[in-house]
Amino acid sequence: MSCQVGRKKMIFTGNANPQLAEEISQELGIPLGESQISHFSDEEIRVRIFETVRGADTFVIQPTCAPANTNLMELLIMIDALRRASAKHITAVIPYYGYARQDRKTQPRDPITAKLVANLITAAGADRVLTMDLHAGQIQGFFDIPLDNLKALPILVQYIQSKNLDDIVVVSPDVGGVTRARDLAERLGSKIAIIDKRRPDANVSEVMHIIGDVRGKTAIIVDDIIDTAGTIVQAAAALVAEGAKDVIACCSHPVLSGPAIERIQDSVLSEVIVTNSIPLGNKKIDKIKVLSIAPLLAEAISRVYEERSISELFI
What pTM was computed for the model? Predict the structure, then answer.
């Protein structure tokens, strides 16, 4: 172990997901650092760190989920506060990386906001980023600092296997998610199917047809994000129409914006498996099963601190 004797490890959290931060703190056996995030009367964000961080390895836990702009600014200001207080290393732990879907130009004069956010995090003073299931793999290359992209797949697999399901087929909701579906299928020892669809506009999808055999099988739709749930709900209906006996959906990041909860509640889906990378708040319903990523993030934080391999977690 190469960590220096006496070097402190400190965990701080913003307001985006304090419950997850508390779980990580308990897993690590160290208390959360004392800090306060509030707002001035004009809604500008105020960050105060109440204990010394000089020479410490600090970790800021803050997904940039909704309200994305507020949570992103909290993260940037906390990083800046720690840098100016002489923290030795600052790792931004971002379980859900917002703006990730704006990762390339699809129309003239489009911004690449995922790259802009990467620049902001780096400029604020972060030395490293820990995130999970980036929407697009190339975002790793947007950073000029080390980035570790963790995978929620082992957590999802463990839960699915505990259900002892028969005749499973893993379904990708679009062609772009085939690699993710194949990884899950290999771990579950099942075949895959693909939903062939077109997307005429943002947050609007139309299922075309299903590639693969789903008749009489339990279909597990896997995606990285469920946002408005339109894609997942339409895919589930198409699978049932093709003879699937049951449909389950799983994802890493439950954005669940707009009509998502109502759509899921009224759909043919029997269960939606998600992680707590994003807090559900008042969006909890019986159909949604939340799995904790706190043990995974805690182990990754320990490995960063001790300068050990992160990739060994997924071998």
Answer: 0.93
